[in-house]
Specification:
This protein has 13 helices and twelve strands. The protein is α/β, with parallel strands linked by helices. The longest helix has 26 residues, at about 370-395. The chain is globular, with a radius of gyration of 21 Å. Bound molecules: nicotinamide-adenine-dinucleotide.
């Protein structure tokens, strides 16, 4: 069917949903109600560039369902972002929030732009204008924004300031992922990566894999990828033998110095020219033999053509939607070789701590970092336990188990609330 969301990432999210709908035997009249977004907004974002000209950027926000509370989701600044991709990410957010037991529907936003090519002033004007265009559709009890690829704490501070200026008072609870100085929470920046590392440790324990001295490969070296790489090396004694970012892929069989790589990206903007590592073709990265493979960049990178060649014991999906349905079929057959930690479980640390930040902002009552981390691990432990239990009891892959728990919770809320009018 052709519709405004037509896009490979949306197709992937729908294909996954249909598998779950068949597995849960969801009635035909509920399927489309659960799958298609409740609201989607497209806005024109005019921005004055430094050279005096005005450029109009395209911005999106998709709110997937409103059955369990306000919607919640990040904002992606990327040249390739589309309404369909945002809709897919919003749908995954719904299942992710439900799996973790958070009182949210899923949302996502995006602006088609390359933030690396904008000056700081242009980026600020773009961020503020995008948020201003969204004001009629968002609110602390309607839709709460957060960061995603290409956006950061500074952009969240501009979002919060723009919204607050319109209200006439400070409204920190309109966004999460804010700097601490304006009501952010301890541990938000590290939350997604920290959660991924926690789940890798849990998975390793279950399959008797010793992490100390083992090898890891990480695709994407931004907020999530760099923190996962740091946690695997410094906390768990693993060797990260290959990393990549948008500039290319870099390897060192003896292990990459992760802290030095972080410092290098801070200074140079990317990993390009990273000392102490050899550059190699990025499409070989995901098939390097290793104990732990962490896609932490974009969706659809593990597909029907490379899934059989993936040679890891744990596939930790830090990115959203890194594995296509074709690749999943291959992993379903290889479940004894590869332990998949599906994305909606694996990267849930971000939205869990965002929820903590929202709660703290609403109450103006702040928690210590140890409280944040402790509560994060407790929620993840519960979700991980539920997925493993269901997978074992019903002999289904982890992804089906995770999605089924999420979809079921949304379906239950929706049917109990009923159809209006
Ligand atoms: P980021 O913008 O900080 O970093 C993204 C990284 O991916 C950068 O290093 C970039 O160079 C790299 N990259 C982009 N395209 C690439 C490509 N084609 N090949 C290899 N590397 C590429 O973003 P992030 O916050 O680290 O998010 C990474 C992934 O994790 C995304 O899929 C995002 O949706 C997901 N995620 C993030 C959070 C969060 O809290 N930040 C939460 C849940 C999920």
């Amino acid at each position: 069917m052709q519709h405004i969301y037509s896009n490979p990432t949306f197709q992937l999210a729908c294909d996954q949903f249909k598998l779950i709908a068949d597995y849960l035997n969801i009635s035909p009249d509920l399927r489309d109600r659960l799958m298609f977004p409740k609201r989607s907004i497209t806005v024109a974002v005019p921005v004055r560039l430094d050279n005096g000209t005005v450029r109009v950027f395209e911005g999106y926000r998709v709110q997937h369902h409103l059955s369990m509370g306000p919607t919640k989701g990040g904002t992606r600044f990327s040249p390739s972002v589309t309404l369909g991709e945002v809709a897919a990410l919003a749908m995954w957010m719904s299942w992710k929030c439900a799996l973790a037991g958070l009182p949210y529907g899923g949302a996502k936003g995006g602006v088609q732009c390359d933030p690396r090519r904008l000056s700081p002033g242009e980026l600020e004007r773009l961020s503020r204008r995008y948020l201003a265009e969204m004001i009629p559709f968002i609110g602390p009890h309607t839709d709460i924004m957060g960061p995603d690829m290409g956006t950061n704490e500074q952009i969240m501070a501009w979002f919060m300031d723009t919204y607050s200026a319109r209200q006439g008072y400070t409204v920190p609870e309109i966004v999460t992922g804010k700097p601490l100085s304006v009501g952010g929470t301890y541990g938000r920046r590290e939350s997604t990566g920290r959660g991924v590392v926690y789940l890798i440790e849990r998975a390793a324990h279950l399959i008797n894999l010793k992490l100390v001295g083992g090898t890891a490969v990480v695709q994407g070296f931004g907020n999530v990828g760099s923190i996962v790489a740091r946690g695997l090396t410094h906390k768990n004694g693993m060797k990260v033998i290959a990393i990549s970012d948008v500039s290319g892929a870099y390897r060192n069989e003896d292990g990459i110095d992760v802290r030095a790589a972080e410092q290098y990206t801070k200074e140079h903007g990317s990993l390009e020219g990273l000392p102490g590592a050899e550059s190699f073709p990025p499409d070989e990265l995901l098939t390097i033999p290793c104990d732990v493979l962490v896609p932490a960049a974009i969706s659809g990178v593990i597909h029907g053509k490379n899934a059989a060649k993936v040679q890891c014991r744990i596939l930790a999906e830090a990115a959203n939607g890194p594995t296509t349905v074709e690749a999943d079929k291959i992993f379903f057959e290889r479940w004894q070789d590869v332990f998949v930690i599906p994305d909606i479980l694996c990267n849930a640390g971000g939205v869990i701590v965002s929820y903590f930040e929202w709660v703290q902002s609403l109450q103006s009552f702040f928690w210590r970092e140890t409280e944040v981390v402790d509560r994060l691990f407790r929620v993840l432990e519960q979700s991980f336990g539920a997925v493993i239990k269901r997978s074992k009891e019903q002999k289904i892959p982890h992804r089906i188990a995770a999605l089924a728990i999420g979809v079921e919770k949304v379906m239950r809320a929706r049917t109990q609330r009923g159809l209006f009018p």
